[in-house]
TrEMBL record:
Residues 126-139 have a biased composition (Basic and acidic residues). The lineage of its organism: Eukaryota, Metazoa, Cnidaria, Anthozoa, Octocorallia. Residues 114-152 are annotated as: Disordered. InterPro entries: Retrovirus_Pol_polyprotein. This is Uncharacterized protein. Residues 140-152 have a biased composition (Basic residues). It comes from the Eukaryota. It comes from Paramuricea clavata.
Amino acid sequence: MAKFLLAYRNTPHSTTGESPSVLFLGRPLRTRLDLVKPDLQMKVMNRQIDQAGRKGHSPTRQLSIGQTVMARNYSGKDKWLPGIVRAQTGPLSYEIKVGPNRIWRRQIDQLRASSVKVNDQSDDTAEPHPELGETDRILHQQKKLSHSRISN
């Protein structure tokens, strides 16, 4: 009797065109046939529609070299310091020049575009900030050496 009722409740009615389970529950009942061959195409389409319709989704921000930004400061009393984008070191990370001898590496979420004027003294011989690490210091020194050889 239970198998008969399950089949009846999942079968579309000739008058309404919908099964009793869809009318009552808003969805068809699961059967053994659903476990053997699930409707993956419908599931994928529903998820794609959900993702396309989501609000608040914004594209990844991009900064250009030479652009003025406010960089998050973790070492002083001021939370944000003005700086200039010096280089993009990864898809989301940048080198920011915040002073004559201060270069920070920051992620895009630690930077904000700004129109604040920054005194740029174009000092490319500045030593990298200590948070860059030993490998970055060595690369910076090699770059300085190659520049001095070219100019001589």
